[in-house]
Amino acid sequence: MLGPTRRWRSWSGLVEIVPTTVHAPATPADVVHAVREAITAGRRIKMVGSGHSFTDVALADDVMLDPAALSGIVAIDRDAHTVTALAGTRLRDLNAALTAAGLSLHNMGDIDAQTIAGAISTGTHGTGGIWSSLSAQVVGLELVTGTGELLRCTPEQHPEVLASARLGLGALGIITAVTLRVEPVFVLEAHEEVVGWDEALDSLDRLAAENHHVDGYWFPGTDRVQLKRNNRLAADVAERSPLPRWRELLEDELMANGAFGALTAVGARVPRLVPALNRFAASQLSARTYSDVPHRVFTAPRRVVFREMEYAVPRAVGGEVLREVRSLIERRGWRIGFPVEIRMTPADDIPLSASSGRDSTYLAFHTPRAADHTAYFAGVEEVLRAYDGRPHWGKLHSRTAADLAPAYPRWEEFATVREQVDPDRVFTNGYLRRVLGS
Ligand SMILES: Cc1cc2nc3c(=O)[nH]c(=O)nc-3n(C[C@H](O)[C@H](O)[C@H](O)COP(=O)(O)OP(=O)(O)OC[C@H]3O[C@@H](n4cnc5c(N)ncnc54)[C@H](O)[C@@H]3O)c2cc1C
Hints:
- By secondary structure, this protein is of the alpha+beta class.
- Among the domains are: 112 residues, 2-Layer Sandwich (Uridine Diphospho-n-acetylenolpyruvylglucosamine Reductase, domain 3); 194 residues, FAD-linked oxidases, C-terminal domain (Vanillyl-alcohol Oxidase, Chain A, domain 3).
- The protein is 32% helix and 24% strand.
- It contains 14 helices and 20 strands.
- An eight-stranded antiparallel sheet has the order 16-13-15-14-18-19-17-20. A five-stranded antiparallel sheet has the order 6-7-11-9-10.
- Flavin-adenine dinucleotide binds next to strand 4, helix 3 and strand 11.
């Protein structure tokens, strides 16, 4: 977020910068103008999203483009089943417009605060389905390249740029508009319950095969895993049974945010209480079943600020990796006051996707803002790397280009496109120099 003093601060508070110059383009033509001006002046330029990345991937320390005015739906094509929106449109606004038009995205992550371009640029994903990440649902986009050209990329025009720019880390240009595949709105039924650790881990493959979307939360220091299974119903939207408002307020606002925030704050201050607090938090979760339009089932408010690292490992080793992480946590005596999230995604064909070419299990590790995450994340990262894990680009990790390149079979495709669209590295920053090498 850009504050009144022009200081930009990310959601987690980990990244802060006062950019040299800020522009707020409202049209693709404004973006072309700003990029050409930056090129002529020999400066670097980046657009930020909503600042929900934990890494400094969005850090714009020279010319920053604020996305707020580059927002809105451009077109809905019912025959082609697509929606085109300006890059700075927030997912929550996109979802509202789609629901009103009787349409929906196929899948999404667990919040809706991000901009479309920001979300796809780091590979924001949900769990299950045919296309788990938003990037995999992109069928076209428009971007301004490092030579100041506005490129329309579709499967017919500049298909190689489209293939990489669906998840481009902000390295390939300033995206001005994105076209996503959509489908008629459907009803999703969520079933949530708490099960034992062994039962959850032993049934991961079966759960993924039998349900459209499976999400798990393990509370470290306990044997409890909260499982959320979302399945499509053959029902009309009018027949859905959402949670009553009072229950939503009590369970999702008061318990999952308010009370949970208080528990994590106590745990960060008095770490020896963490196991008891985790047992208490897990015991408060009751089984529930409800159904609603997709975005109201997939996403929920997240008001407790945390730190996060997330990795994708090959699907088949997901349970084994989690068991190894648990044993590491127990050996080191770490008291982790935040659940570990388990999601499963199908393989995709996107060069820099963590699921590129392989079915994956995503494991996400969190700590409350007030706790020190460094030893926990570093220790767990060693385990994840040993299993050929690939990091989420928007979440904390310590990888560099030298060790990332061999982990992605299509790495060179991305590098070739980058050479073509940003030969002078107009869009680079410190993060890109670390993970891409320039
Ligand atoms: C509470 C919370 C929940 C989250 N849940 C999930 C989840 O369920 N699944 C998941 O995968 N991730 C999740 N994330 C991570 C988040 O979705 C990603 O980090 C995402 O990239 C953030 O989007 P943003 O709009 O905030 O973009 P930013 O973080 O601001 O920017 C991300 C990148 O996009 C680039 N960018 C933005 N706009 C443009 C543009 N117009 N053209 C070119 N590049 C651009 C930026 O330069 C930067 O490189 C979560 C994060 C938080 C804080």
